[in-house]
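Box 3.1. Reading complex inputs
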Amino acid sequence: LGRKVVITGVPGVGKTTVINRALALIEEEGLSYGSVNFGTFMFEVALEEGLVRDRDEMRKLAQADQRRLQKTAAQRIGEIEQNIIIDTHCTVKTPKGYLSGLPEWVLRELQPDIVVLVETDADQILSRRLSDETRTRDMEGYGGILTHQQFNRSMAAAYGMLTGCTVSIVTNPDFLVEKAAAHLAEILR
Amino acid sequence: LGRKVVITGVPGVGKTTVINRALALIEEEGLSYGSVNFGTFMFEVALEEGLVRDRDEMRKLAQADQRRLQKTAAQRIGEIEQNIIIDTHCTVKTPKGYLSGLPEWVLRELQPDIVVLVETDADQILSRRLSDETRTRDMEGYGGILTHQQFNRSMAAAYGMLTGCTVSIVTNPDFLVEKAAAHLAEILR
Amino acid sequence: LGRKVVITGVPGVGKTTVINRALALIEEEGLSYGSVNFGTFMFEVALEEGLVRDRDEMRKLAQADQRRLQKTAAQRIGEIEQNIIIDTHCTVKTPKGYLSGLPEWVLRELQPDIVVLVETDADQILSRRLSDETRTRDMEGYGGILTHQQFNRSMAAAYGMLTGCTVSIVTNPDFLVEKAAAHLAEILR
């Protein structure tokens, strides 16, 4: 089986850019990783099973169905034989609080080798969100972002206890995306 | 089954006031929640089983008995069909360190939907404890309260990983109890 | 069965000194604790099983073998009848991120009663590492040490959720090692 690397980060941290730059770096060396977005993968499983017709219906599924879908998706990703990056959230901020992106039933199937937290200072994330005109996001203040990132670290620790995966923090500060990508590439090597 | 909402907070944070105000708000809208105190509920189970005669004897129980009681109490609360608030501690500070209020064997039975952390700044908690003449508490400094609240967040993250419950932080600062109650009411809705 | 106390701390925090001083204090009172280093214990199990010939080979073992060794070591320590101190790391910093020292399969066998985090300010740890000429360590900055200690707390919370062990923080600041030892002695009593 290949290596399974979960990559997480709060909205606006620049996760996708860091992933793409890191993949470019290691591909130059002949290393390759497949890549799945956990939410998209779950949606595809739901489509196949005839549970939903479009992505909007995903949110309306009963909790039991959602959890079963999460488990099936994790199981299938767990069976992929090549090295793979799983793009997901460590926790999702919902109106009812922080929700684990990789609860026990997902972790037991997925068995990740590494969980990466892409982070940067809360004020930089706030600026990046403010300047991103393509998305309308619920605006969250500095303190909220700070707390979310701290909570993600605590959650990742619990993931590490349950699975024995390592937890790696990749910092992606303004003007230093190449450094962040080099760090992630080193983790992927 | 109804919704199970665990509400926690360090001593002096004003948890009971926030809960009562939030319940008053949602009752105006026709919503209702039952309410149990986990410790009291455990004591009642112990009385029924003839394990203890008074609350003092609870502390003297063997660890195996205490854990079995916790599990039975959690099981019974888990079977309650209405919406319910469970008033307990995220962690309890003991002479041997922080003790989880909802260890694995409790969580597996209880299956909470939401764990709420009622928090405020450590200095405000310290002031509230100092002005509360009805209780004699072991006095703890600013740093101790700060650490306790931070540790509670980490513990709550582990609860979220195991059960998939959301973790919600309700801030209860001086002069803003109505705002805290409104936030909790929103979570309970 | 005796009490099992896991004692952890980042490199340079002075864990061994605090343990030895605390053991001296309680031995004066007639209390006794055995003591094992988890890594050394694992190595001895590996030697017995003919898996390795020297300590260097430990690192080259397949992950499945390492985990089985961890589990066997934890099982044997779990069966020790006297009070015992287990000297290990809460998390180990590796090139792939923080690795749990007591993942689920270890905790389930070991069933610790208490996990102690020996801590002090990151700048003091940095100074102690710089002045320790006997070891060549990968140099880590202030921020890295701060993050490592915070992450250890989060990890310890997850240990507490799974096993019901208490988590105790013993601070070992400059010039106050006797106070740290007295605190640890109180935990061991």
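In summary: The mean pLDDT of chain C is 95.
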